[in-house]
Amino acid sequence: MKVDVIDMAKRKTEISSTVLRALEILEYLKDNIGPQSVTEIANNLGFSTTIVHRLLATLKMQGFVFQDTQTRLYSLGTIFIEYANKLTTELPFASIIEPELLTLRNQTEETVGFYILNGYKRVCVLEYESRLEIRRSVGVGTIYPAHSGATGRSLISFLSSTIQQDYMKELEGEELQAFKEKVKETKQQGYAISYEEINENVTALSAPVFDQHDRLIGAISISGPMFRFQKEQIEKYVPLLLASTKRIKEVLGE
């Protein structure tokens, strides 16, 4: 049987294009607040409504999207809850991040942790405690509100503006305005600092961690008692922290 090489190459291109379009639809649903219509998705992504409808039907059948039976609008499917739980419990890239946390702990002599978002919370999934007698201890599995502290800002500041608004919806008045200013500052400098925001007498320094495609995967936090964690130490630790996040991104891309 003679195989048409050109036809095969064309077929592979079509398949790849279909997968990419489906992924773009999932990304769109992730980045926008509330259920979306076929027309909204098609117009914003520049796809035809026919293509969007066909892809959504397939994604719905596999559980990747959910369609409200009354409004006919689409949102991400519950299968992503399973993915999030698996990621939280297994953390497949832990072997890449752990050596960097250990290095930072040894360099700074303070407690170093890695956090990820889980819904409207952030959870500590990896931690190396300071070996000094007086130290900050968080504990793997500890959960905080997503917006709280330097680590919360390191996570939220690098999300899309629509998702940021969703995380800020419980804030109001002066608290909301102050948080917006801190988010802006964090995005400009690439890291966040907090003094006694969650615990008394504790300073924290945090920076986001991205994968090779510039997608946010979590944040690294360095925290310790304020009496030895002041401006002078922060100035020393910032370059170490940013160098660490950069190395993680590079290794993930290898």
Please describe what this structure looks like.
The structure is a single chain. This protein has 254 residues and is of the alpha+beta class. The protein folds into two domains: 5-77, Winged helix-like DNA-binding domain superfamily/Winged helix DNA-binding domain (Arc Repressor Mutant, subunit A, Orthogonal Bundle); 83-252, GAF domain (Beta-Lactamase, 2-Layer Sandwich). The chain contains nine helices and eight strands. It has helices at residues 5-31, 38-45, 49-61, 79-90, 94-108, 149-156, 161-168, 173-189, 231-252; strands spanning 65-67, 74-76, 111-118, 121-128, 143-145, 192-195, 202-210, 216-225. The strands form two sheets. Strands 5-4-3-8-7-6 form a six-stranded antiparallel sheet, sandwiched between helices. Strand 3 (111-118) and strand 4 (121-128) form a beta hairpin. Helix 2 (38-45) crosses helix 3 (49-61) and helix 5 (94-108) packs antiparallel against helix 9. The longest helix is centred in the N-terminal third of the chain and has 27 residues, at 5-31. The two termini are 40 Å apart. The model has no long low-confidence stretch (mean pLDDT 87).
How far apart are the termini?
Answer: 40 Å
Gyration radius, rounded: 22 Å
| Helical fraction | 40-55%
Number of H/I helices: 9
Can you tell me the CATH superfamily of the largest domain? GAF domain
- What does the average pLDDT come to? 87
CATH overall fold name of the largest domain: Beta-Lactamase
Going by CATH, the architecture of the largest domain would be 2-Layer Sandwich
Number of domains: 2
